[in-house]
Write a structure and sequence with these properties.
The chain is 54% helix and 8% strand. By secondary structure, the protein is α/β, with parallel strands linked by helices. The strands form two sheets. Strands 2-5-6-1-7 form a five-stranded parallel β-sheet, sandwiched between helices. A two-stranded antiparallel sheet has the order 3-4.
């Protein structure tokens, strides 16, 4: 477990809670995707479960305290730390979970991993949250992407959030806290995470990614989110950005370019195939949407860069760029509503060139 880089305000909040002696049992860690919320949740769990760790150790990672519990946490095999990801369905005891595409955090997975009860196959599961901790120092349950729990799942976890057994903590990690039910949010203390400052982000890049000549690009692209930098490297987004650069310049000149759709579609297809190859149970539809969201973020980065370089008195250029930003936002909304991806891309390219012509 590496030391946490950045997130000083969030860590101070958690240290104060640890020192108070009145630590709440349920938490929401929210913030943009990829900024390290789950890392901090794991670090918080380390301090909660390691009797030799204290509030002052929070953020220092596994090097802070050497103990049997700390070694198990660093190795990822501590029996009282339970991290739930949607991808865990592939290891579920319920067959229907193993066979399904991994698009959400289903109720049956919550029953197996946290709250217990009858799963859809009729099997009865004891609630792990109510079992005695194995090592005697409490239990921590982390639900990553907790906004992917549907309403049935969220309602089913309410009682555990409200009345967990002693020395049991639940952390809901989410980039969309508004998708959690008000009844869920009201039972949790909420810690908000922001992007890393440039200095912290550059330090993270130096320690974790061999960026070479791409470091400055990754710094701009990631916007303080280490996970986004990793995603750009893994998905070969940097090459796609290079291929798109002359196409976007043509759009900026008011010339419609069919190559826009070709380059974007090729990237989305390659990325979706990569995701499914790595995980046979991954949803290709979800992978397509996530790849397209990277493209829309890339286009937004281009517009923001141009806005930053626009002369203060150039009102017309500023107006056009704000309109382009709105067009990108509209495209994202359309995709969320399930509109055809090819149609959305073609429309965006046409509207982009039209906006720059007028």
């Amino acid at each position: 477990m590496k030391p946490v880089i950045g997130h000083h305000a969030a860590l101070d909040t958690l240290r104060s809670a640890l020192e108070s002696g009145r630590l709440h049992h349920a938490w929401i860690f929210s913030g943009p995707p990829g900024i390290g919320k789950c890392l901090v949740a794991s670090e918080f769990a380390r301090v909660l479960l390691d009797p030799q760790a204290g509030a002052g150790d929070l953020g220092n990672g596994g090097t802070a305290v050497v103990s049997p519990e700390g070694e198990k946490l660093s190795a990822g095999n501590h029996p009282d730390l339970h991290v739930v990801h949607k991808e865990d369905s592939v290891h579920a005891r319920t067959r229907s979970l193993r066979d399904r595409k991994q698009m959400n955090v289903p109720l049956d997975l919550l029953r197996e991993r946290i709250i217990g009860g009858h799963t859809s196959d009729g099997a009865m599961h004891e609630a792990p949250a109510y079992r005695k901790s194995v090592l005697g120092n409490g239990k921590v349950f982390i639900i990553d992407e907790s906004e992917l729990m549907d309403n049935n799942g969220q309602n089913s976890i309410l009682k555990t959030l409200e009345e967990p057994p002693r020395d049991t903590w639940i952390i809901l990690v989410t980039s969309r806290p508004e998708r959690l039910l008000p009844t869920v949010r009201s039972r949790c203390d909420h810690v908000r995470f922001g992007p890393l400052p440039d200095d912290d982000m550059r330090r993270w890049l130096d320690e974790n990614i061999d960026g070479g000549d791409d470091v400055d690009w990754l710094l701009d692209w990631s916007e303080g989110a280490p996970g986004m930098a990793l995603l750009a490297k893994e998905s070969n987004l940097i090459r796609c950005a290079s291929d798109l650069e002359p196409v976007i310049e043509s759009l900026n000149s008011g010339d419609w370019q069919k190559e826009f759709g070709v380059v974007v579609t090729e990237f989305i297809s390659a990325r979706a195939d990569q995701v499914v190859k790595q995980n046979k149970k991954a949803s290709k539809d979800v992978a397509n949407k996530q790849a397209l969201s990277l493209i829309l973020r890339l286009l937004g980065m281009h517009v923001r860069t141009r806005l930053a370089n626009t002369a203060p008195g150039d009102v017309e250029s500023g107006r056009r760029l704000w309109e382009l930003a709105n067009r990108i936002g509209d495209a994202e909304d359309q995709l969320q509503r399930g509109l055809n991806m090819k149609h959305v891309l073609e429309t965006l390219a046409a509207e982009w060139s039209q906006t720059c012509r007028t």
